[in-house]
Amino acid sequence: MAPTLLVLAAGMGSRYGGLKQTDPVGPSGETMLDYAVFDAVRAGFGRVVFVVRREFEGAFRSSVASRYAGRITSALVVQAPEDLPEGHTPPAGRRKPWGTGHAVWCARSAITGPFAVVNADDFYGASSFAHLAAFLARAHGTGYALVGFSLANTLSESGTVSRGVCRVEGGRLVSIAEERAIAPSDVGPGQRFSGAETVSMNLWGFTPSVFEGLGAGLRAFLEAGGRDPEAEFYLPVALSDLVAAGRAAVDVLASDDRWFGITYPGDRARAVAALGDLVRRGVYPRRLFG
């Protein structure tokens, strides 16, 4: 069975100042998401599922999902705040969804085979998708994968970033610690980080068994702090907890690709330049779809 690509596209882009998922950055108007879908198709993925907010659904269908018709089968899943395990309801005034762990769990009815998870506004590189496709071809049970990037390859010159710093032993994930406010000046000899640390950029490979584990984690999260209107159930934290409990084993697939994203407005020009360079070098065609 060809794997499915699950795209997390429900973020608001508050630091960026708008919807990053539809911002054109490629030479022919492509979005960051277009490059992820293109790389997934040529790595052998057969279907893409987008997780979106209800208020984005119509615009996403017409301006994003329609571009892939004839290339890959697609579907949309709405990440609604009220989509929770039985017996739980959102607190009064809760309007936003519950984070990336909740976003993946919301796709439980749309996915029946091995799948990868990506952020809609990140560029991961072709080899990262190839690594995941090879892993997913043999994935079974509660054996999952994370594509890990070097911290030095994931920084923004426009501001600080938060990164899930991974503890890895024997090629397996032991834990993920969320480190906040990392600036380029924090990385290097004698600094807070060396730059060689492995970090998660939310590029995962799963089997459908993960939905049961995420559901249990989501219930525990809601029981502990679900009345907080700002609380979020993060995917890296959820997987770190599953590993610690012995309910999952996660292979860490090292990537040498240079990740880039558009967290801040100032990141856009660098993304445009980087993609233009990849096109000039023949890594991507000038027009991905159309």
Short summary:
26% of the residues lie in helices and 24% in strands. It is of the alpha/beta class.
Structure description:
- The protein has about 290 residues and is of the alpha/beta class.
- It has a single domain, classed as Alpha-Beta Complex (Spore Coat Polysaccharide Biosynthesis Protein SpsA, Chain A), CATH 3.90.550.10.
- It has seven helices and eleven strands.
- It has helices spanning about 30-45, 55-65, 100-105, 125-135, 210-225, 235-245, 265-280, and strands spanning about 5-10, 45-50, 75-80, 115-120, 120-125, 145-150, 160-170, 170-180, 200-205, 250-255, 260.
- The strands form two sheets. Strands 1, 2, 3, 4, 6, 7, 8, 9 and 10 form a nine-stranded mixed sheet that branches. Strands 5-11 form a two-stranded antiparallel sheet.
- β1 (about 5-10), α1 (about 30-45) and β2 (about 45-50) form a beta-alpha-beta unit.
- α1 (about 30-45) packs across α4 and α5 packs across α6 (about 235-245).
- The longest helix is centred in the last third of the chain and has 16 residues, at about 210-225.
- The protein is globular, with a radius of gyration of 18 Å.
- The two termini are about 25 Å apart.
